Amino acid sequence: MNTWKGTETEKQYEYKCVSVNEHSNDETIEQKINEVASQGYRVVNFINVNEQILFTLERVSTT
Predict the structure, then answer these.
(1) How far is it, in rounded angstroms, from Cα 42 to Cα 59?
(2) CB atoms within 10 A of CB 61
(3) CA distance 53 to 49
(4) Alpha-carbon distance 27 to 60, whole Å?
(5) Which sequence spans correspond to the domains of the chain?
(6) What distance in Å separates the CA atoms of residue 45 and residue 47, rounded to the nearest whole number?
(7) Confidence band of 12 (pLDDT split at 50, 70, 90)
(8) Which has the higher per-residue pLDDT, 57 or 11?
(9) Average pLDDT for residues 9-24, to the nearest whole number?
(10) Cα–Cα distance for residue pair 60/28, rounded to 1 Å
(11) What pTM, to 2 d.p., does this model score?
(12) Which residues have CB under 8 Å from 40's CB, separation 6+?
């Protein structure tokens, strides 16, 4: 999982990337996303690369 920061319209955002094997069942995928979402992140994008689904999540920065 990667984390980085960005700025848009005077708000700062924090981002995380979650990687899940594309052959994982729906419950496994949902569990991984919910682990990060419980920290205030929301899914903003996803892409399938080399049998991995990469989810990008963001939240407004608290720092």
Answers:
(1) 7
(2) 13
(3) 6
(4) 27
(5) 2-60
(6) 7
(7) confident
(8) 57
(9) 90
(10) 26
(11) 0.78
(12) 59, 60
Cα separation of 15 and 43, whole Å? 10
The encoded tokens of residue 8 equal: 């848009």
Topology annotation, domain 2-60: Phosphorylase Kinase; domain 1 (3.30.200)
CA quadruple 48, 2, 17, 22: dihedral positive or negative? positive
CA 59 to mean position of chain CA atoms: 10
Q: Is 23 left (phi over 0), alpha (psi -120 to 50) or beta?
A: alpha
Q: Which phi and psi angles does 10 have, rounded to 5°?
A: 65, 5
Reported as a pLDDT band with limits 50, 70 and 90, residue 21 is very high
Q: Could you give the C-alpha distances from 1 to 9, 10, 32, 35, 40, in angstroms and in order?
A: 26, 26, 11, 12, 16
